[in-house]
Amino acid sequence: MNSPLNVFSQVNLLPQLCSQIFSQFVSHWLRVTPSAFTRGAKGLNSGLRTDLKKFNALNRHPNISGKPGHVHLIGSGPGDAELLTVKAYRLLQSVDVVMYDWLVNPEILDMIPPHVERRFVGKKCGEHSMTQIEISELLVSVAKEGKTIARLKGGDPAIFARAAEECDLLTRNHIPFSIVPGITAASGASAYAGIPLTHRDCAQSVRFITAHLKDPALQPDWQSLVTGAMPDAQGKNAETLVFYMGLRRIESIMQQLQAHGLPMDMPVAIIDKATSTQQQVCIGQVKNIAQRIHTRQFTGPALIIVGEVVSKRQKVVSYHQQDGLQCTAHNELSNATTNFAG
User: Fold this and answer.
1) What is each CA distance from 340 to 52, 150, 230, 258, in whole angstroms?
2) CATH superfamily name and code, 186-338
3) What predicted TM-score, i.e. pTM, was given to this entire model?
4) Active site includes 236?
5) Taking Cα atoms as reference points, which of 211, 215, 193, 184 lies closest to residue 283?
6) 39-50: per-residue pLDDT in tens?
7) pLDDT, tens digit, 9 for 90 and up, residues 277-334
8) Does 123 participate in catalysis according to the annotation?
9) Catalytic residue among 123, 124, 144, 236
10) Which one from 101, 153, 156, 272 is the annotated catalytic residue?
């Protein structure tokens, strides 16, 4: 029979025995099944590599679904960045790519998030970064990658901005698109210069004319323009004429208007860089506006307003800190008439 001392000695040895048995079991299991750990590690690494390949492929080819992206044709307004619409701003925050024209205010471009890709596709007289067909094809190509695009244009995309050509190619390629209107140059320029486009006393309608035709040999219907601009016997029911992109053609435009019967003393205004802090306004008449503009350093874009509404110009307060947008005198038109020699 064991003594009490022997029993307690054996009990004290139990932790040591358990530790030895557990160590022997683990060593034996590792020797017998090392391939299990190897296969597990290899499987984990293989899975990570596969997922990484899928992630890289997704970045290189984001349009795995095959569905095209959406194109938003957005008008950025006439110049002042604060005239951008709320909808336009919201879309600029959510798209993948912004393709913008040279007329877009840099302050608007600063509103675009850093992660959004920017592509300049601007065109102006004599300086084209891309042709119009190249721009349209680029829209289709990028949209087919599944990317959402903001096609950012100056003014309103549906007024002398060639949106119709881009929409046509998008339609033929089954690319979904939408149009977000912007404030057109005529509205912005007339408002910031204090010149109404219509007036119940002298102008019941307004006509927008492009001075930059697709074929230089083509001409507007000058007789129709002059007939519309002529008031009736009561001096009413005339039409205001607004020429876009006509700064370099001002002499030709005035000559054609005179040749087709427009009175030589019909008021004319030329507004350069409308709604911006660099806006300038030149006031004259059909007979002398081309000469008066030569004394001013106008570089464009510029808008030409022809009609009695010019004589209705009011003094407006500038929305900018500088006083460049304010009309300096109500009688500027009469000064332009009396100061012109000949």
Assistant:
1) 76, 48, 24, 18
2) Tetrapyrrole methylase, C-terminal domain (3.30.950.10)
3) 0.74
4) no
5) 193
6) 444 444 454 444
7) 999 999 999 999 999 998 888 988 999 999 999 999 998 876 664 444 444 433 455 4
8) yes
9) 123
10) 101
